[in-house]
Amino acid sequence: MHRVSLPEKQAPQPHSSPFYSHLVPAYQAVWPAVAKRRMSAAIKALNIPAGAKVLEVGVGTGLSLNSYPTNIELTGVDLSEAMLAEAEQLIAEKKWQHIDVMPMNAEELTFEDSSFDIVTSFHTISVVSQPQRMMAEIVRVCKPGGRILMINHFRSDNPLIAKVVDSAGNITKRLGWRTDIELDEVVRELPLRLDSRYKPNPLSLFTVMEATCKPEQVVLAP
Ligand SMILES: C[S@@+](CC[C@H](N)C(=O)[O-])C[C@H]1O[C@@H](n2cnc3c(N)ncnc32)[C@H](O)[C@@H]1O
Questions:
Q1: Which domain does 109 fall in, by range?
Q2: Residue 1 maps to a domain
Q3: Each residue's pLDDT tens digit in the chain (222 positions)?
Q4: Pocket of ligand 1 (CB under 6 A)
Q5: Which residue intervals define the domain Methyltransferase type in the entry (predicted)?
Q6: Distance between CA atoms of residues 213 and 193, nearest Å
């Protein structure tokens, strides 16, 4: 597997990266039970076709990786090299040849335009410095007609719930996690068709979002 370090000039230091680097062990103890099932169900529902080129942005320690089919080409990126080290260990243990992970800033992806059939991202857009920029980058690297799958906490449309969660946001902000991101705000003005948004269960704080990328650029076969 090929890994490169971020060159100095493009190595941003958003608040989130040191946090995740220093707390990998604690994170590993708590997060898997909460998140794994949610990601797995959403990835399986995508029915990813054989040979698809898939990018996961903010792949972290690789909790989602065993939910993808093995007959695809999967690239995972993350800003934290400590998180990626865990993912690499897992990939080596499982002898997965179809997965590559590398350090990269979600707000400045180094891939060419329209490189991927599917782009996924889980629990990451609320920890980057510029959520709109991350979403714009995801759309840029996704092919016309390609699909985007995202799971995250987004601000509730219900004013009461939004207010309660906003007050918790003062605490979670210290952990590098924002609670006030609005999905509509993040996708506004992007060439994206929102296909579905739903809660994994009625009480969940998280939203699963599926979208089609640059639908107006899709060329239909004659
Ligand atoms: C809450 S974790 C989620 C990890 C994984 N997706 C999961 O659900 O287990 C957020 C991840 O975003 C990464 N991250 C934070 N800022 C980033 C950035 N600007 N570019 C890429 N990754 C970033 C962190 O290093 C961390 O791995």
A1: 13-215
A2: no
A3: 445 455 444 444 444 556 666 666 766 677 787 789 999 999 999 999 999 999 999 999 999 999 999 999 999 999 999 999 999 999 999 999 999 999 999 999 999 999 999 999 999 999 999 999 999 999 999 999 999 999 998 866 766 666 666 666 555 665 566 777 888 888 899 999 999 999 888 878 889 999 999 999 987 777
A4: 14, 16-17, 20, 31, 35, 58-60, 63, 78-80, 83, 105-107, 122-124, 127-128
A5: 55-149
A6: 7
